[in-house]
Write a structure and sequence with these properties.
The protein is of the alpha+beta class and 419 residues long. The protein contains 11 helices and 16 strands. A hairpin with a 2-residue loop joins β14 and β15. α2 packs across α4. The protein is globular and about 60 Å long. It starts with a helix and ends in a 6-residue tail after the last strand.
Length: 419
């Protein structure tokens, strides 16, 4: 609990004066009354700690995602938050749908991609001579989504790659700390990545079969997937008695999609993420995904977690952490879903609902569940207790938190001759 409070204080690091200063960077003539009104409406996330109000360090930038009024008050030259390249309809989505229709396949447009991931512990974060232990996310092969995962090497050498059965798979490395120098860990690998599209006919979708293998994905998964009274009330309000499986999915997906995206607190500081997403008035990708998983499971539809990194070939150098999921719809089986990207701006159902049953070809998954143990096990409390996208590090004296190291993710599509 003491460590959780320390992390909360790192997240909620702005007093009222600092929060106002941050907002005034974009609204120079911000009034105290405006700030107070937005604060009262819950648009500037805060916690009252020991009698003092502290604001989330990302609350000033989140304000412009949550409030039309605040966006309208921004300086004319202030850039607005931009979505990721594949979070808006583009030619790639159309190519995926067309390729699936022409080939009769649900996995299309394969690309061989080389990846380099690193974790660099800051100089003198650990006493010289002490062993630093690092875990860097590493992918599993997932049928129809990512294949032919090929290890290319690591720095330092002798990495220990977790078994393919590990649901949060990593490569484990060790190195001695050197005084005055950062300690860098790097892994290199290649994988074939597919885009996915399944043309779901709602009329063909059946009730969930009584398959024991599906039962774990229908159950609560404490602490972050709980069937609370508030969740049941929200579900009832959304569904209005609807029971057809595909329509249940579509309605719940749309309801969660309507929750505005905002930069998130560290997950390790939240006691029930799906409940937080339900009540906070905003959520990031993992929070939205856990809320949708909870809603689907509560309504008898199997759902599960997936997460990793997304990237783009649009020349921007875009790469980001991302969480999404999968839903089971008989007779189609497990289908991907990305509620954060949500409905695309198209009148064509195959494009509008692309991310119910489809995925773009610019993402790699590291995790097929949340909150799972590492192999080898971590000895100290993880920095990220739910997800695993950046990595983890520790030494004999304790965990190394995010402010003590940096991570990097690079990728390159390989020419056909190198595949």
């Amino acid at each position: 609990q003491r460590e959780r409070m320390r992390r909360i204080r790192l997240d909620f690091s702005l007093d009222e004066a600092a929060a106002k200063t941050a907002v005034r960077r974009w609204i120079p003539d911000l009034t105290d009354a405006e700030f107070a009104r937005w604060d009262q409406l819950g648009l500037i996330e805060h916690l009252d700690i020991d009698g003092t109000r502290w604001y989330f360090k990302r609350a000033p930038s989140n304000l412009f995602r949550l409030s039309d009024e605040a966006r309208a008050r921004r300086r004319a030259d202030a850039p607005l938050p931009a979505p990721g390249p594949n979070e808006v309809l583009n030619a790639h989505h159309a190519r995926v749908v067309a390729a699936a229709a022409q080939s009769g396949k649900t996995s299309v447009l394969p690309q061989r991609i080389a990846f380099t991931q690193s974790l660099t512990v800051k100089a003198d974060a650990v006493p010289a001579g002490e062993t630093i232990r690092a875990w860097i996310p590493y992918p599993r092969e997932i049928p129809g989504q990512q294949a032919q995962v090929q290890w290319l090497g690591s720095t330092p050498g002798k990495a220990r790659v977790a078994p393919a059965s590990t649901l949060q798979r990593t490569a484990y490395l060790e190195a001695k700390a050197v005084a005055g120098q950062p300690t860098r860990f790097e892994i290199r690998y290649a994988a074939t990545i597919f885009a996915r599209h399944t043309a779901v006919d709602p009329a063909r979708v059946q009730a969930t079969p009584a398959d024991p293998a599906l039962q774990p994905f229908l159950a609560e998964q404490p602490p972050h997937v709980r069937f609370t009274p508030a969740l049941k009330l929200f579900s009832d309000q959304v569904l209005q008695g609807e029971t057809r499986p595909y329509e249940v999915v579509r309605r719940l997906y749309a309801a969660v999609d309507r929750i505005p995206w905002a930069g998130a607190r560290e997950y390790s500081t939240l006691s029930n993420i799906s409940d937080y997403a339900l009540h906070a008035g905003h959520a990031d990708c993992g929070q939205q995904t856990l809320l949708l998983i909870a809603l689907l499971r509560m309504n008898g539809i199997p759902a599960r977690w997936q997460s990793g990194r997304v990237f783009s070939d649009d020349g921007s150098g875009y790469a980001n952490l991302h969480d999404w999921g999968a839903v089971y719809l008989a007779p189609y089986g497990w289908l991907p879903m990305d509620v954060t990207t949500g409905a695309l701006a198209s009148d064509a159902p195959a494009l509008r609902d692309f991310y119910i049953g489809g995925l773009d070809g610019y993402r790699i998954a590291f995790n097929d569940d949340f909150g799972q143990p590492f192999v080898p096990a971590k000895q100290h409390y993880r920095s990220e207790t739910v997800d695993s996208q950046r990595g983890e590090a520790e030494w004999a004296g304790g965990n190394l938190y995010f402010d003590q190291w940096d991570d990097d993710f690079q990728w390159q599509v390989l020419p056909a001759g190198q595949r």
